[in-house]
Structures are given as C-alpha cells and as structure tokens.
C-alpha cells in the first residue's frame, strides 16, 4: 500500500502516533510514540526509546496498527501492516533511522527501530 503525500502531511503534523500490538497471549496493547515518520512510500518507522513491551509484542506477533491525528485539523489515518524490529547493529539501521535520529537528538537514544510495512491505509 502506498503512503501518499496526504498521509505524509498528517504524519508530519501529528505530535504522537499510537502503536497497537498484541502479545503472544493475544492481549492487545496501545502505546503512544512521539518519534515516528514515513519512510519511502510503504513504511512507517518508529523510534524505540523505551518501548520494550511493544518490541516484545512485535517479535511475537508482527501484525500491528499505527494511528495518528493532526489535532488542529481533526483528521488522521489508521495504517495496518506487519512490523519488524531493526536493531542498532543491523546494516539498515542508520538508513531507516536517519530522520528518527535527527528528531531524537542526543537526549533520547534510540535502541531499535520499529519498521512497519504498510498493508492498508484508512482515514480516521
């Protein structure tokens, strides 16, 4: 599924996204994430700064949902897809995480990147 310019604009204008995951017992978990962006036309990347539960859940069940809303326009999107954890030692970490690292700066070390390959996009 393609992330078009309309979706990218709402991502840029959103302060938080919410990442919904499921653990290995099927229990859902939704957590806010502050450092996230689109990558290319089919992925959303999210910084793992203190997201051990989300990382553990993605490793158990990669199907996720990411939602975000531009609060000033009261418009946003729900993206569903499959996530994978990209660790710091992974060769693609710096490329996938370049914008996240810039956004986080030195004050917020990024442990991993949660990379979501988007399968569906829906307006919310």
Structure description:
- The protein has 124 residues and is an alpha+beta fold.
- It has a single domain (5-123), classed as Electron Transport, Fmn-binding Protein, Chain A (Pnp Oxidase, Chain A, Roll).
- 24% of the residues lie in helices and 44% in strands.
- The protein contains 3 helices and 7 strands.
- The protein has helices spanning 5-13, 52-60, 93-104; strands at residues 17-22, 28-33, 36-39, 43-48, 63-70, 75-87, 112-123.
- Strands 2-1-5-6-7-4-3 form a 7-stranded antiparallel β-sheet.
- The longest helix has 12 residues, at 93-104.
- The chain is globular.
- It starts with a helix and ends with a strand.
- The mean pLDDT is 95.
List keywords for this structure.
about 120 residues, Pnp Oxidase, Chain A, single chain, alpha+beta, 3 helices, 7 strands
């Amino acid at each position: 599924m393609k992330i078009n310019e309309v979706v990218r604009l709402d991502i840029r204008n959103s302060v938080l996204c919410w990442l919904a995951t499921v653990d290995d017992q099927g229990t859902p978990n939704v957590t806010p994430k502050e450092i996230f962006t689109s990558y290319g036309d089919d992925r959303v990347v999210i910084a793992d700064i203190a997201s051990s539960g989300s990382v553990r859940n993605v490793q158990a069940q990669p199907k996720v949902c990411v939602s975000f809303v531009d609060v000033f326009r009261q418009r946003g999107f729900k993206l569903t897809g499959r996530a994978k954890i990209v660790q710091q030692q992974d060769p693609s970490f710096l490329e996938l995480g370049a914008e996240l690292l810039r956004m986080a700066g030195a004050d917020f070390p990024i442990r991993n990147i949660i990379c979501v390959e988007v399968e569906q996009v829906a307006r919310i």
